[in-house]
Amino acid sequence: MQLIIFAGLLVAADISMAADLGPSPPSECCSVRKYSIPTTPSESLPGNAASPWQYAVRVGQILYVTSLRAFASFTHRDTIFSVGNTNAEVTQIMMLINNILMEAGCTWSNVHDVEVLVTGDPDDKFPAVYKAMDRFCRALNCTDFPWAAHFRTAESLADNATVEFAVQASNCEWEHKASPQHKGLQSECCGPLKRYPVLSSLVESTESAPNPWKYAVRVGQNLHVSSVRAFKTLTDRTIISPGGAYTETKQIMTLTEEILSKAGCSWNNVHDVALLVTGGRENYPVIDKAINDFCGESAYNCSGFPWAAHLRSAPSLANQATVEIAVQASYCPWKPVDHE
Q1: What is the pLDDT of residues 68-86, one digit of tens each?
Q2: Beta carbons of 32 and 251 less than 8 angstroms apart
């Protein structure tokens, strides 16, 4: 089985207790409708008024926000605000996202998945990005809600930007912002999507500095697992065998299986696998073999179930890691999880 991917990276680790997920109704959404968010600029590509790209699209109870850089404004996308100043870029991006969320009737408290793409040394850049996000979140009270996290690297970004964000949100106050043709869509769902953190913070919280990052977040019938590197354990973030793609991949799969089990899921429930890899295409066959070997050894025959796959190369990963993997799962038994 050939797997392909893209992933991000965890920023830290600390487990306390798993959430009691409880039972779910057989179907939380009666139907799904898709439309762009009203009043958002219709074009995303300069000079292409017929472009299908939108700043945000709602699908059922989920809002998908397009990746954003630190544009000076929505109408001045060729100018990046304070290029190279991480705090300024992150703050500007989060303000732009905040405006988009508001247009959809959402807030940062509705966000459940955050992707961050950066240039530069990840071991220097990610702590700076996290610090800027934490400062912004304290002002908007977005630290109390669970997010799955994906931090990724790129050789370069458009317009000389150094940071790019994309988010997903759910359970917003849709009807307050719906355009006339979409009024009443609140009735499309039988009820709000259930949303739970599965494990405690990726980045250690303190009473004075809470944070929203979690190893996994359940939203409705989907489990969003934050990107994982080959840590020794979920609480010891030392990378095993840095540069060894085979060993790292099998360790990541083992840790991901542990996270899945905390939610009552297994590899049988996984439907999307994203991998981020350094070292070029020569590592792809090694990673593919490691995944196939793991699936053959796992208690769950994960090679017999369908996955969408995404494989991407990265110039570097934090802690000199070679591989990162992120997965999504769905329709798990969601049985209550015992506290650790």
Answers
A1: 999 888 877 778 888 889 9
A2: no
Range of 120's domain? 29-193
Contact call for residues 322 and 283 (beta carbons, < 8 A): yes
Pick from 146, 168, 193: which residue ends a domain? 193
Do 35 and 164 fall within a single domain?
Answer: yes
CA atoms within 13 A on the CB side of 20: 3
Q: Residues 50-54: what's their mean pLDDT?
A: 64
Pair 222, 329: CB distance under 8 Å: yes
| Environment class of 188 (CB within 10 Å of its CB; exposed 0-12, middle 13-18, buried 19+) | middle
Is 176:185 a contact under the CB 8 Å cutoff?
no
How many CB atoms neighbour CB 109 within 10 A? 16
Q: Tell me how many domains the chain contains.
A: 2
Q: Where are the alpha helices (DSSP H) in 47-112?
A: 86-103
Residues 213-226: what's their mean pLDDT?
Answer: 87
What are phi and psi for residue 48, nearest 5 degrees? -120, 80
CB 69 within 8 A of CB 161: yes
Q: What are phi and psi of 191, to 5 degrees?
A: 180, 170
Same domain as 245, residue 156: no
Model confidence over 117-173: pLDDT tens digits? 999 998 889 889 988 988 888 877 776 677 888 988 888 888 889 999 999 998 888
| Residue 61 tokens, joined | 């109870």
Query: Taking phi first (over 0 means left), then psi (-120 to 50 degrees means alpha), and beta for anything else, what does residue 82 get?
Result: left
| Cα–Cα distance, 3 to 8 (Å, whole number) | 16
By residue count, the chain amounts to: 340
Half-sphere exposure of 275 (CA within 13 A, CB side): 29
The residue type at 251: Q
CATH at 127:
3.30.1330.40
* Element of type H or E holding 261: helix 245-262
- For residue 268 the two structure tokens come to 């049988």
Q: Could you give the angle at the alpha carbon of 338 between the alpha carbons of 333 and 340, nearest 5°?
A: 135
